[in-house]
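Researcher: Structure for this, please.
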Amino acid sequence: MDEEWCPLWAPDGSPEVLDGAWFGIYDADAPLVEIELHESMPPVAIAQGLGQTKFGTARFVWNSAVRLSRCLAGLMLRQASSDPPGTSAAPLLAVELGSGTGVCAAALALALRSVARPCEVLATDLPQSLPLLVNTARRNRLEGVLRPAVLDWNEALAAARAWSETAFDRHDFDIGASGAEASWPQLASADLIFGADITFSAPLRRLVLELLVRACSAGAVAILAHEDRDDQVDLRSALEVALAGEDIRWAELDELEGGGGGAQDVLIFV
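Model: Predicted structure, C-alpha cell format:
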C-alpha cells in the first residue's frame, strides 16, 4: 500500500525534523506510555518504537489515537451500564485499520473485558508493524483477544468490489479465519470497524472511506478519529463524495455529546 505523504515527511518525501507536538504525537520522547482510559479501568500500556524508523508512523502513539481509545472505552462502558440487569450482550467482533502500536484496539479490548463482554479484536496493519501489536497484546495481557493481522487496504477493497457483485451473508465469515492475514471477509463480518489518523492524505481518505462505506453497507458501525492538520475542508469533501447516494449516516462525536474535542475529530458512521 503506497502512501503519497505522511505526517512525518516533507513534501519532497524526505524525513523532517521531528516536532511531536506539531505532528500530533502524544509523547514523542517516552519509550513507554500509559494512557488513562477511565477511572474504573487500568491504563493501557504501550511501548513506542522510538528510533526505529522501520516502523514509520506506526511507532508512535498519536493524539487522535488517545482520543479514540478513550471514546471507545467510554462508549463500551456506557452501553454496558445501560443494559437491563441480567442481560448478556452478544460477542463483539471488531477490526482496527492502521493499528500502529495497537493502543485503540487494546483500549477496546480492555473496556470489554472490564464489563465481561466477550469480544475478538483484530488489530491490522502492514507486516512491519506486527511486532508492535504483538508487544501491546502481551504487555496488556490481551493474548487471544487482541489478534494482530496483516491487512492490505487495496487488496481488501478489490475483494469488496468483487463481493458486491454476488449475494453473501456477513455471518458466513469467521473474523479469524485468515490467521495472520486479513481481507474483506473480516471487514464484512465485523460489528465495529475503527481507526485513528488514517485519513491524513487524499489517497488514503478515498481508500479508507470506500472500505468503510462498503463495510457499513454490510452491517458494521465505523468510528474514525481524524487529526486536524488544516485539511478539514478536504475531509468534508471526501465524506460528501464517499457517502453520496448511500444510506449511511455520520456524525461528529462533539455533536453527539455536546462537548469540545480540540484538534481531533471523532466521526461515527452507521
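Researcher: Any notable elements?
Model: The CA atoms of residues 116 and 225 lie 26 Å apart. The first helix runs from residue 20 to 23.
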